[in-house]
């Protein structure tokens, strides 16, 4: 076995790891979004699940999609040698909710991807993060041919707090996804600062 | 019942999926004492002295693969699960064994509540912009 690459006595860098979740309805582009910025091809971790529900997936409006995210697709971004960000696409279907708690524990924040043709698909994710006080940003995935709505329309339709960032994006574009992630982290920063203030005053 | 041995030996069908195999690697265990520490982004780091894990005959090939992968660079639990193509639950048990054997240690991720030191988040933003 090849253990040769490990140099004895040389301490390995043990980076700080962070995670951001990418949530949203079935077929909204979560895995595409992860793949757009990940330095590795999105990997898949799975828990043992049966796929008995597969035939009833409603793909109206997302006819292009033939496979479904059974478990968690994830990507990695090495920001620095000692700082690594993981992106986890959450399972797209409601019957996998039990996996969310494990994913959400310790998450820095979340992106909720929204398809304005099927806005209601993201309600559950928005509720989830609001209830658990996990900072999140809305990424409105502008699919080709999808009717565009202003960020204000989306904010109103989702009844979001004013501080929740709403960003128009293209989940296939690296620069676009970077912008959404920056919005999440900035939001997490002010969120943490606000919480700090409310504790000390 | 007794007269139909053929049928009773097929009490499950194909739809049940692989009923036994993955957790056979853990000898049936589905949890481990150190499991509560193992977040998906917990990093598994090989101990420097763990350069001959094959000497330990109690380890399975999957254990050895984990040690080998972690020797190259620390690996997250999620990456190990993907690399080994095993359920996360199985990897947690196997990593727990390796912790007991002192062949690896696990670095817990920093909980966001402790990231109030904003410099890390600022580094994340700068790092993302620089991609």
TrEMBL record, chain A:
Coiled-coil features, chain-numbered ranges: none
Name the record gives this protein: ATP-binding protein
Family: Belongs to the GPN-loop GTPase family.
GO molecular function, one term: GTP binding
Keywords per UniProt: ATP-binding, GTP-binding, Hydrolase, Nucleotide-binding
Lineage: Bacteria, Bacillati, Actinomycetota, Actinomycetes, Kitasatosporales
Domain of life: Bacteria
A Pfam short name: ATP_bind_1
Organism for this UniProt entry: Streptomyces ruber
TrEMBL record, chain B:
Record Pfam families: DUF742
InterPro entries per record: DUF742
Domain of life: Bacteria
Protein name per UniProt: DUF742 domain-containing protein
């Amino acid at each position: 076995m090849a253990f040769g690459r490990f140099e004895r006595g040389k301490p390995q860098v043990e980076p700080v790891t962070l995670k951001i979740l990418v949530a949203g309805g079935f077929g909204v582009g979560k895995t595409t979004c992860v793949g757009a910025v990940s330095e590795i091809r999105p990997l898949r971790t799975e828990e043992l699940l049966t796929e008995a529900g597969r035939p009833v997936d409603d793909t109206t409006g997302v006819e292009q999609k033939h496979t479904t995210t059974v478990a968690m697709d994830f990507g990695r971004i090495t920001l620095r040698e000692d700082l690594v960000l993981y992106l986890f696409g959450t399972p797209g279907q409601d019957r996998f909710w039990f996996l969310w708690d494990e994913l959400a524990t310790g998450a820095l924040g979340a992106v909720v991807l929204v398809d304005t043709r099927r806005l209601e698909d993201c309600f559950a994710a928005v509720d989830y993060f609001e209830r658990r006080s996990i900072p999140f940003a809305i990424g409105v995935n502008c699919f080709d041919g999808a009717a565009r709505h202003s960020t204000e329309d989306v904010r109103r339709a989702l009844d979001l707090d004013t501080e929740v960032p709403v960003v128009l994006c293209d989940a296939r574009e690296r620069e676009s996804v970077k912008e959404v992630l920056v919005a999440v982290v900035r939001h997490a920063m002010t969120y943490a600062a606000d919480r700090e203030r409310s504790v000390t005053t | 019942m007794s007269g139909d041995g053929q049928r009773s030996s097929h009490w499950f069908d194909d739809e049940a999926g692989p009923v036994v195999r993955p957790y056979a690697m853990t000898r049936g265990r589905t949890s481990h004492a150190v499991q509560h520490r193992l977040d998906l982004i917990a990093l598994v780091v090989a101990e420097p002295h763990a350069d001959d894990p094959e000497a330990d005959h109690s380890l399975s090939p999957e254990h050895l693969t984990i040690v080998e992968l972690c020797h190259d660079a620390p690996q997250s639990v999620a990456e190990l699960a993907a690399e080994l193509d095993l359920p996360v639950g199985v990897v947690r048990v196997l990593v727990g064994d390796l912790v007991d054997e002192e062949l690896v240690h696990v670095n817990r991720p920093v909980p966001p509540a402790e990231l109030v030191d904003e410099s890390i988040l600022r580094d994340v933003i700068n790092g993302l912009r620089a991609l």
